[in-house]
Design a protein that fits this description.
Elements: E1 18-29, E2 32-43, E3 47-51, H1 58-65, E4 73-80, E5 83-85, E6 90-93, H2 107-112, H3 123-136, H4 152-164, E7 170-174, H5 182-195, E8 200-204, H6 208-214, E9 217-222, E10 224-228
Helix pairs in contact: 3-4
Length: 240
């Protein structure tokens, strides 16, 4: 696809310190095994693109990484500066179907939620950050609207704004292209490419042709984890 941003190896920072480490992680509900024997580390500066079949465990993996759920077995560890820590600053874009759009909250208020963990910001600084992010998402005209009044693409952009407004160290994106209209898609690629210059990114998507060209690591999840050696990867790609 021409005309869309592409990161080459020279523009990517080399991975350095481990930030998130999964050690022999498994997840099971009743008799259903969602994930088994998953071990890998997310390094500072990584852009990890994750794909896999429906029901293969992609969203479960992200929820484990975010510590929204605890693994049945194994361990998820956060690290900063080589030391184990309790928390990391992580921005998260969930799938749209995980959001109750009936909740009476505006676009502006939703984006501002991404600054809740930011201490020491003045009200003016918060307003400026929120306004700049809303502008980046192309939502200036919708800032005062309730999220229940938005189209699917507008809500997706609002949630992405919430995820990035704090400039998190790690950004986790679950199907960021879902519901996004073609008019905004090119802008989204540019935003992601720009973020990758200073943010560690973990991204799940079925639309991998362009995303894969930005990533430095490519993973397939189908209950277990396979890291791929090819730049552009699909379910049938040969993996390590």
């Amino acid at each position: 696809m021409t005309g869309k941003p592409k990161l080459d190896a020279s523009s990517m920072r080399l991975p350095q310190n481990k930030m998130i480490e999964l050690d022999s992680v498994a997840m099971q509900w009743d008799n259903h095994v969602a994930l088994q024997n998953v071990s890998f580390a997310v390094n500072e500066g990584d852009f990890i693109a994750i794909t896999g079949p429906n029901g293969g465990g992609k969203t479960t993996l992200l929820r484990l990484i975010l510590r929204l759920i605890k693994p049945t077995s194994g361990r998820v560890t956060y690290r900063s500066g080589g030391k184990e820590v309790d928390t990391l600053e992580i921005g998260y874009l969930p799938q749209k179907n995980q959001i109750d759009s009936r909740f009476p909250i505006t676009v502006e208020e939703t984006v501002a939620l991404g600054l809740m963990s930011q201490k020491g910001l003045s009200k003016q600084q918060r307003r400026e950050k929120v306004a700049a992010t809303i502008a980046l998402m192309g939502l200036e005209e919708h800032a005062k609207r309730l999220i229940g009044e938005l189209s699917g693409g507008q809500l997706q952009r609002t949630l992405l704004g919430r995820a990035i407004v704090s400039n998190p160290r790690v950004l986790v994106l679950d199907e960021p292209l879902s519901y996004v209209d073609k008019a905004f898609e090119n802008q989204l690629y540019k935003i992601i490419a720009d973020l990758a210059q200073h943010t560690t990114i973990i991204l799940v998507s079925h639309e991998m042709s362009q995303i894969a060209s930005m990533a430095n690591r490519h993973i397939i999840i189908d209950r277990t984890l396979h890291e791929c050696s090819a730049e552009h990867h699909y379910i049938t790609t040969q993996c390590n």
